[in-house]
Amino acid sequence: MSTVVVTGxxxxxxxxxxxxxxASGHTVWLGCRDADLGRRAADEAGxxxxxxxxxxDASVRAAAATVGALDVLVNxxxxxxxxxxxxxxxxxxxxxxxDTNVFGAVRATNAFLPALKDAPRPAVVNLTSxxxxxxxxxxxxxEFNAYPADVYRAAKAALNMFTVQYAKAYPAFRINxxxxxxxxxxxxxRAVGQxxxxxGAAVARVVEAGPEGPTGKFLGPDGIVxx
Length: 227
What we know:
By secondary structure, the protein is an alpha/beta fold. It has one domain (3-224): NAD(P)-binding Rossmann-like Domain (Rossmann fold, 3-Layer(aba) Sandwich), CATH 3.40.50. Helix content is 43%, strand content 15%. The chain is built from 7 helices and 8 strands, in the order E-H-E-H-E-H-E-H-E-H-H-E-H-E-E. The chain has an 8-stranded mixed sheet with strand order 3-2-1-4-5-6-7-8, sandwiched between helices. Helix 1 (12-23) packs across helix 7 (196-207). The two termini are 32 Å apart.
């Protein structure tokens, strides 16, 4: 079984991913910014807590030192901006979303790289969304064509590109981005989509794919998602 770190795991898809992996017998570290919430989540999931704020370099480095040996990193931490017309976006708002959704994933990946390089079957799984697909965003018939959250879309598109570049740089790794599908999460107001445990199980399946699984791919609930 593998040792896995899941960032942003105090609730939502991150928590359900951690819980599914623990149930499968993996050792799972729940990386959480808030210590109290993180400890409660780890206790509930049956995993281990590590304080990890992906927007803080020192926090990420300290988390990597605490975890030690690692097989799989799941970059799940993410934020969604308030509804804002694209013509009214500010640099600060764009920076806020990118700092967690893109820079945070880069910080975490690079901090854990030394441990992953020593793993027999290293993997990185980046949580993305199909609304970050340039192909789908350009399709006027796509079901999410009119969905707003322009910064979130752009951040996921950037994360997808980093996924491709990391996969090329580390061919011995299995590095993919995965969209578990529309989910009734806090981020979505719990209004629409599949139950949270289903999304967590979808991410867990990618984690558990093994060395024969794909790399450098954009994986969705129905297979490969177009870039």
